[in-house]
Amino acid sequence: MKFTLLLALGSLVSAGFYDKSPVMELDATNFDSVVLTNDTSIVEFYAPWCGHCRNLQPEYVKTGKHLQDIAVVGAVDCDKAKNKPLCSKYRVEGFPTLVVFRPPKVNLDKANDKKYIHATEVYLGPRKAKAMVEFVTNRMKNYTKRFATLTKLFEWAQVDSGRVKCVVLTQKDRLTPFLKSLAVDFLGAVDFSYLPLNKNKEEVYEVFEIDPDHEKAVLAVYHDGKWTKHTGDMSKSSITEFISQYADVESIVEHREYKRAILKGEKPKKKGGKKQRKHKQARDEL
Ligand SMILES: *[C@@H]1O[C@H](CO)[C@@H](O)[C@H](O)[C@H]1NC(C)=O
Ligand SMILES: *[C@@H]1O[C@H](CO)[C@@H](O)[C@H](O)[C@H]1NC(C)=O
């Protein structure tokens, strides 16, 4: 009796270690398209039968929840025959092995002649969500610019980089992982900056018509010599919709859909890298 029950449970667990969780089950067919990108990723190489993997599972799911829309939290089942080459490529010798993948910094204003190679780092810190989240967010590339004054912000906005300029006016003085991830998501299409609202408060409130009681963070795009405020919520999808009026976000949306499908356990096909058309602006379509 007991024996059959255990068997049944065992097969349930191995059916999908991270099914219906914010952790992406990756395999040899999608690993590179998800991990070897401008995103920062943490990947757990595991085996479903390993006790330490099972202990890590709840904390790793929490990590995935915290980093949703910010960084990639993935897992590779090294017990599966088709994944074995991937696990040996990254020299996985014990389970679980947590590896953080750091993309190289892209220089947008220079043709990149350097090879695009990710740095890998085995995570040896505490297996707690908080520690893992901190470790990953600390390793995300910072493509944002911080401005302390409106004058500096306007100077920057007026320089034509060939990309759309965006500012986040925020009560927080420090750069948040969410803002860092926005700049990574839109890399090459939109330049992001932020201006903490603790300085020159009144002036900023006036210029951007901010109601400080109701607007804790405001995102605005510089277009045709003026700032336009985003009036929706600060979710990635809402921000993306807003920005799509000014920049070509097609490939960004496509990649996000691709990741979402993998998260749901589907087998999406990666569309052949359509080059992003820079500069396509809303008025072209009107
Ligand atoms: C991010 O980088 C920009 C320069 O590109 C810098 O102004 C800003 O202070 C940096 N932010 C942090 C938190 O390091
Ligand atoms: C990283 O971003 C740059 C700028 O948008 C882009 O040219 C490059 O293809 C991206 N790299 C990857 C691997 O997606």
Biggest sheet overview? 5 strands, mixed
The first-level CATH class name of the largest domain: Alpha Beta
Order of helices and strands, N to C? Answer: HEHEHEHEEHEHEHEHEEHHH
Radius of gyration: 21 Å
InterPro entries: Thioredoxin-like_sf, Thioredoxin_CS, Thioredoxin_domain
GO biological process, one term: response to endoplasmic reticulum stress
Keywords: Signal
Organism: Cyberlindnera jadinii (strain ATCC 18201 / CBS 1600 / BCRC 20928 / JCM 3617 / NBRC 0987 / NRRL Y-1542)
Annotation keywords:
five-stranded mixed β-sheet; Glutaredoxin; 36% helix; disordered N terminus; disordered C terminus; 11 helices; single chain; alpha/beta; binds 2-acetamido-2-deoxy-beta-D-glucopyranose; 286 residues; 10 strands
Summarize the topology.
Blueprint: H1 2-15, E1 24-26, H2 31-35, E2 41-46, H3 51-66, E3 72-77, H4 84-89, E4 97-102, E5 119-122, H5 129-138, E6 145-146, H6 150-158, E7 164-170, H7 177-185, E8 190-196, H8 201-207, E9 217-223, E10 226-229, H9 236-243, H10 250-263, H11 282-285
Parallel strand pairs: 1-3, 2-3, 6-8, 7-8
Antiparallel strand pairs: 2-4, 4-5, 7-9, 9-10
Helix pairs in contact: 3-5
